[in-house]
Write a structure and sequence with these properties.
The chain is an alpha/beta fold and 496 residues long. It contains 17 helices and 18 strands. The strands form three sheets. Strands 1, 2, 3, 4, 5, 6, 14, 17 and 18 form a nine-stranded mixed β-sheet that branches. Helix 2 packs antiparallel against helix 17 and helix 4 packs parallel to helix 5. Bound molecules: zinc ion.
Length: 496
Amino acid sequence: MHRVLLIFAAACLSGSILGAQAPAPSSGVRYTKLLIRNATVIDGAGNPARGPYDIVVQGGKITGITRASAAPESADRVTDATGMYVMPGIIDVHGHIQFHAGGSPNGAAYPKDYVYKLWLAHGITTIRDPGSSEGLDTILNHVRLSAENRISAPTIIPYVTFDGPQTPDSARALVRQLKARGAAGLKVFIQRPDLYDALLSEAKAVGLPVAVDLKVQETDAMFVARRDVRSIEHWYGIPDAAIPGPQNFPDYYVYDNELDRFRWGGDLWRQADSTRLSAVLDTMLAHKVTWDPTFAVYEANRDLTRARNMPWLRDYALPALMRFYEPNLMNHGSYHLDWTSADEAMWRNNYRIWMRWVREYAARGGNVTVGSDAGFIYHLFGFATIREMEMHQEAGFHPAEVIQQATQNGALLLGRTNTGVVRVGFEADLAVVDGNPLHNLKVLYGTGVDVAENGRMVHRGGVRYTIKDGIVFDAPKLLDDVAGMVREAKAKASAP
Ligand SMILES: [Zn+2]
């Protein structure tokens, strides 16, 4: 009898959601009443900084924002934010959850909280997962564990990669099935217009938003915008819709060769016709399509040496991830086998044109968001999101607008109108930052920055606290956990 009970208990434990395979229990704490004292506030709605203010958080909500007072109200946790900035938690709308290198279950395994902790440590409180190969059931489980503060993770919005159907009927059936299983949206990169038509009309009927990654194919931005997709990821399909005739690729080009594909993708903005591009943007605008450009994930294409040698890779990139990034056509995004000065020059020019059109889309009223697509091409989770913000600034956006793109605009895309802004009544999704990101976005990097203070250089910066749904996380502590995971993995790799 006892033996049976023991076996039963062991089975329950190993099958439990916090069993050996799950991430560690959450280090976040929710207080009955949290007071953030003396903070300068960047609201995320594009307004100038205000303050100093005292911010009161009760449960998961912001309940008070008042001028900092010498006699503040009492609270069961007080955080002194003197000299710090409070902004909305960042919403990264393109964050693939990965527990394995390359996001493939066949890749080398990561600790399950590695990616989550890198995100939270950078003030990221919400991620839209545009499709994870770890399986919808696992991801849905983590959606719940995160919401219940049982794991340290951002709020997860689980989109599902739409894959498989070869007929319009089976495409419609799969849309209904994914909706029933709990998908929050679909990420689509299929190639056939008939399947697109079927799935987009069915998705609209059942109320599932669709994000598209168009790659190079006969469907382009005009085709999907007219069918009301929610977002276009990256940029594929936008210049393509404005090229008279087919893309002008060299005769040896084969799409499935990633070196060909990524190299010559860098010439498409040059090939596009400006008058036609303007019309493509107007069509996207008329159908309220969000453009999520993900500039930074391609940055290695314009400066490979820089991408490979970013300082944070040393302490925060797992050896398995670094191996995955090394040139190998079997690994998605690891195509730099013969990357030349000419390629980098072409890609620099490509960025100049691309960035100009993203700025133009925002100027016409289009929604532009921040998405990182980390885990590929030397692009490390968390750090990649901050780099994406820097590249939005490079595209010509004011830092206040960049922060808005990373917060309020992301919330707009997700249809979550109660977060993404520091405002009374909104969800307490916040980043408390040691420095002024309007002055220098680099203060958001977990590794911080060196700044001059009273004539000497001191090290500052980084997010001090990430507050998700009122739950307070010690951001540097999360980053220390990650450094520990990396040290451990390296020790294991070098053990005899
Ligand atoms: Zn992606």
